[in-house]
Amino acid sequence: MRKLILLSVFFATLCYASYDFYRLPRSVKPQHYNLRILTHLEDTSRLFFTGDVEIQIHVLQATSNITLHVGSRLNIAENGTWLQSVGRKCNKDIKITRVERNSKYDFYILHLDTQLYPTQRYLLRLQFWSRLGRTMSGYYASSYRDECNSSQIKFMSVTQFEPTDARAAFPCFDEPSFKATFNISLGHSAQYNALSNMPLIERIPICERRNWVWSIFRQTEIMSTYLVAYSVNDFEGLASYSAPYERSVKFTTWARASVIEQCKYAAEIGPRILDYYEQLFDIRYPLPKMDQLAVPDFSAGAMENWGLITYREASLLYAEEASSLTDKQHVTNIIAHELAHQWFGNLVTMEWWNDLWLNEGFATYVATLGMDRMCSKWHAYEEESLDNILAILNTDSFCSTRPIHLPVSRGGQIAELFDAITYRKGAVIIRMMHIFIGDKAFHSGLNRYLEKHSYINAKQEDLWLALTEASHQINSIPQDLDVQTVMDRWTLQPGIPLISVQRHYVRKTATVTQQRYLMYDGRIPLKKDQQPLEVDPCWFIPISYTTDSQSNFISAEPRAWLRCNEEHETLPLELQELPGDDEWLILNLQLSTPYRVNYDTKNWELIIKGLQCSVFKRIHVMNRAQLIDDSLTLAWSGHLSYTLALELLGYLKHEHEYMPWRAALDQLTAIDRIMRQTSEFEEFQHFLHHLLDPIYNHLEGMLEDRDDRHHVAHKTLITRWACRLCQADCVKRALKYYHRWFILSVPDEFNPVPRNLRSVIYCTAVRHGDADDWNFLWQRYRNSTVASEKRLILLSLSCTHDVGQIERYLRLIFNDKSIIRKQDASQIFAAIVRNDVGTHIAKDFLMHKFELLQKFYEPNRRELASLLVQIAHHVNCAEDYQELRIFIDAHKELLECSVRSLRRALEQAQLNLRWRQQRLSEFTNNLAMRYYD
């Protein structure tokens, strides 16, 4: 036995000598952390923290070294590190012979003079310190102005650890599967509050520090490091007293004292959503409290830390008198998303980041269920689902897309996973699965999955198994199919299918086939380091359909399956007993599955006829949106003629619903960007006016909707387009509203501009106004205390057509000393790029000030790449494309963390260029034939 142990030690040591891998070794794991942090906020010129951590270690394999994570900016005290073996009566010191830091992987390696064995318990203690940075990651400082003295800047501290920044705050085993419990104690000046994942037990004076205390918190449940959270602040808390949580969960919302009144909505809706999720999953929320914290400087929208959710202020605060209904829905969505994570991500955590979509996809989808339950008249389930599907049908049509489940081969790739594929496509395929296995199997399977994997980690295969068992138990899917067979096709390969339907009208049948859909009808040449596309990917696709005479769009469950054989080759599907040549056939009811559909010409003509008749609403509103989106996209890529696509689009003069208009204008945006740079733009404008005038009048244009007769998002969408196209009534009324506000003596106390139209009115006034109009709105930004209003103003200021003002604004947003928060810079830049005048100014600024931008965003270089993607959407001539490609090539080493984003940028520019060269003439010829009165 001893020889076996020695042999295993030998091989473990031998393996470690050549260890060069981004994952931690599996020889040891943590069981418990005792973490103490002293946070120094009293000297604003010297913000820092010190701390010590004791980690109880369990040895899984004999080893002579311990490897954990320590961030590059976290300093470890040389004489403050020790390791002991824990005995029954006393502990024994173990000598640390050498310490090694591996900056490539943030490894901190302790080399020991003896072996550690699985039968023994060990205790590791480290002391550390670091600056409280302003990077909005790790443990950092956030600033705000004092409510009584606006010239005084105050600071609070807060954590943001996901995905890999817990190591920047304390030494730890910073991977999702290294779960442990935590005892957290925060030392701070007595004037501050302290918050953490668990309830506060007591505050104890620190003897050696006058007016300082230790805030000691209850031990956490077993959890991953990225979910640990703590904050030191002087905020106020608003307790919730909603009926469900008068029982055991203490629900409190925290914010700066000056905005605490804006927390009322979040404090009211949060407990209701949490209660709904407990019913939905049939599992109680396991912690005794839930805190929501509004943070002035926050990089993400929110973060689901267990028991202490942190939010950007605009994602949590809602002011009844100033925020729009859209703002209210946004706050509800974010809260619902983060609370869903308390089960998907916190209670059950993905084993590694390649299954991040299990966290984010589920939270995104379940949030739509939560929103729908809170207010059914918002139609959140349908509209959020459509929003996600349209986004994915676009994003996933690029060669440069990726699978949902992506093996991570280096640490830097983890951050790239936080994208639309993870969140939106994850949500879309979960909705698809919910529909094809049915409601009962879905809820039963989720409960099995959550119960079985509570407090541990899981892979997507674990979820598939639970859902298959539940589905087969009630026969909701064929016995020869299992969930994994279907879903692996959607998670392990990139892209989306194009379903081709060829009807045989005499035989009353249709042949259904599949292939991968690419926006580019042909292959864009690959670069050396790119992976070739899979030639013939195959999906298991649930097929739902209905016909003109049936018009049954309610039952979205599959009536057939498009399958693959054992060699992963596609198998055609034959639909039988269809109607004759006088009835349309429509697939994919309520867009239950993310694929595009192209029909034979005759069926397209029948669909167009159905849409142009008086009973077109028999076709479900989501499918009307689908038909518009598919036809325009297929025409863009050359799979369908613009003759058919524009004829179908013509039915919109009768359409009053939001979703079809949303789909249409999303598609026309890409065309609009190109047409504005051509001589045919005037003709395109005439077409857009012809299209928009009826719906603009139906929605009563810019008149304030005092009795909520019209859909707010719809009215905002249409008026935004109308005013941008300089429709006379729209511009006139927008300027009149703005002028009423402008001439007030107390504009910060009363704003007569209708809340739900402010985004349109502010932008239109700035676009058509002068420097006084811009400066007036800028002053309102400086004085406002409403986060959503401040964000709206910043975006509206980008609408100016004054070249000098745009240049000054760009310098302002990327100035570290500006009052504009760093978290808002990228959104403002994107808004300037969307401005017709601002596009080239923003591009030149980026290319000539790239070093300044690099310093501004350091260390988050992914934001730099996102700016280039925004520029690429507007590139559609050969000269601009070459300039962009050369610029990216010259900075590829700096931007290597965002390779996929840069490929997407170049591909987008190529697609624009190709459309202008190959599709523009057909498009404009069809406009000339159809839309001149």
Q: Can you describe this structure in just a few lines?
A:
It is built from 27 helices and 31 strands.
Characterization of this structure:
- With 933 residues, the protein is α+β, with helices and mostly antiparallel strands.
- The strands form 8 sheets. Strands 1, 2, 4, 5, 6, 9, 12, 14 and 15 form a 9-stranded mixed beta sheet that branches. The chain has a 5-stranded mixed beta sheet with strand order 17-18-19-21-20, covered by helices on one side. A 4-stranded antiparallel beta sheet has the order 10-11-16-13, with no helix packed on it.
- Helix 2 packs across helix 3.
- The longest helix has 20 residues, at 899-918.
- The N and C termini lie far apart (94 Å).
Secondary-structure blueprint of this entry?
Blueprint: H1 2-17, E1 28-40, E2 48-59, E3 63-69, E4 75-76, E5 82-86, E6 91-94, E7 96-102, E8 107-116, E9 121-131, E10 138-145, E11 153-160, E12 181-189, E13 193-196, E14 200-205, E15 212-217, E16 230-233, E17 236-239, E18 250-255, H2 264-281, E19 289-295, E20 302-303, E21 308-312, H3 325-340, E22 349-350, H4 356-374, H5 380-395, H6 420-437, H7 439-452, E23 457-458, H8 460-473, H9 483-491, E24 497-504, E25 509-516, E26 541-543, E27 545-547, E28 560-562, E29 573-575, E30 585-587, E31 596-599, H10 601-612, H11 621-637, H12 642-649, H13 658-675, H14 681-698, H15 712-724, H16 728-742, H17 758-768, H18 771-783, H19 787-797, H20 803-813, H21 825-834, H22 838-848, H23 850-857, H24 862-872, H25 878-890, H26 899-918, H27 920-930
Parallel strand pairs: 1-12, 18-19, 19-21, 22-23, 24-31
Antiparallel strand pairs: 1-2, 2-9, 3-8, 4-9, 5-6, 5-9, 7-8, 10-11, 11-16, 12-15, 13-16, 14-15, 17-18, 20-21, 24-25, 25-29, 26-28, 27-30
